[in-house]
Amino acid sequence: MPWFLEPLLIAAWTLLFFTLARSQRHAVAGNLRALFPEWGPLRATWGAWRVFWNFALTFVDGLRCETGTGEVDWGVEGLAHLEELSNRKDGCIILTAHMGNYDIAAPLFASSFKRTLYTVRAPEREPEAQRLRELEMRRREQRHPNFRSLCNQDGNLLGVELARLLAEGNLVAVQGDRVMFDVSPMEVEVEPGLRMRLPKGPLFLARATGAPCFPLFITRDGWRRYRVTVHPALELPPRRRGEDPEAAVIWAQAVFAPARRHWNQWFVFEPLLFRES
Questions:
Q1: What is the CA radius of gyration of the chain?
Q2: Contact between 106 and 173 (Cβ < 8 Å)
Q3: What single-letter DSSP state applies at residue 192?
Q4: 256: burial class by Cβ within 10 Å (0-12, 13-18, 19+)?
Q5: Contact, 214 vs 95, CB < 8 A?
Q6: How many CB atoms are closer than 10 A to CB 267?
Q7: At what angle do helices 158-167 and 201-209 cross, to 10 degrees?
Q8: Within 13 Å of residue 99, how many CA atoms lie on the same side as its CB?
Q9: Which pLDDT score, from 0 to 100, does residue 273 have?
């Protein structure tokens, strides 16, 4: 199609899904109102629309790359930290969030690492959609031998498998911002009066293995342009028995800070932020 029609069609389809996806629309607007308490309902709804719109754009960019009908440009911020991550010999955790388009970025950057990158993703809600997703993941892995995807499904002892992969010196990418299905949540105060629900598993994996953890986030800079921002490894306090509040706060802040800065690209469609009354 002519290039100028693509954004118009994306906007039309986004409006349709924005209208139909009532619970997701309300969840995004609720997160934004908790994040920005001065926002009213109309402004929060407009903000939710921008989240849906950016999600649609990145989704189409992913399809373009997957089908070979388009390419995206990349920029890297924190190149020294990316080189440190690439050159380390021990297993490392990459902490990321649902921002940008990790389906494009992960296979691309996996090719620059000297070891295998394993990513963890939630299963699809419908069995048929999950089968299609697995076929897609296997095709992607054939094109990118250093890239593997694992699904967090019931009964597969994923935590044990990830710990083994880290012990062997591999890279494991985990998304630390979505609480779905039977994932155990934790609540952390990220600002005075603002609490955030996060999955416990990624932090528990880091604490149990002692693997260094590098926060890495992807944002959309413009039309088919993306930026990868790599931060230095998190400095977590020494591990101790029982509750681990200090580490939880550091972990949560690593996820919350980029989500707040790029709120219109934070593709979380469940209620995660709560403002205490």
A1: 19
A2: yes
A3: T
A4: buried
A5: yes
A6: 20
A7: 40
A8: 28
A9: 96
User: With contact defined as beta carbons under 8 Å apart, do 76 and 100 qualify?
Assistant: no
CA distance 248 to 50: 30
Q: Among 76, 78, 102, which residue's Cα sits nearest to residue 178? A: 102
- Rounded Cα gap, residues 97 and 155, in angstroms: 24
Decide: 254 and 196 in contact? Cβ < 8 Å: no
Question: Where does residue 80 rank: exposed (0-12), middle (13-18), buried (19+ CB within 10 A)?
Answer: exposed
DSSP alpha helices (H): ranges in 21-151? 22-35, 41-67, 79-87, 102-110, 127-143
Structure token pair of residue 252: 């949560």
Closest among 90, 141, 86 to 114, alpha carbons compared = 86
- Do the bridges between strand 194-199 and strand 185-191 make them parallel or antiparallel, or are there none, so unpaired? antiparallel
E strand or H helix that includes residue 189: strand 185-191
Q: Is 116 helix (H, G, I), strand (E, B) or coil?
A: coil
Whether the CB-CB separation of 195 and 70 falls below 8 Å is answered with: no
**Residue-wise pLDDT tens digits, 121-137:** 777 778 888 788 888 87
The pLDDT tens digits for 111-167 are 777 788 898 877 777 888 878 888 887 887 787 788 888 887 665 678 899 999 999
Instruction: Name residue 162's amino acid.
Output: L
CA–CA distance, 45 with 64 (Å, rounded to integer):
29
Q: How many CB atoms lie within 10 A of CB 55?
A: 22
55-59, 110-114, 186-190: which has the minimum mean pLDDT?
110-114
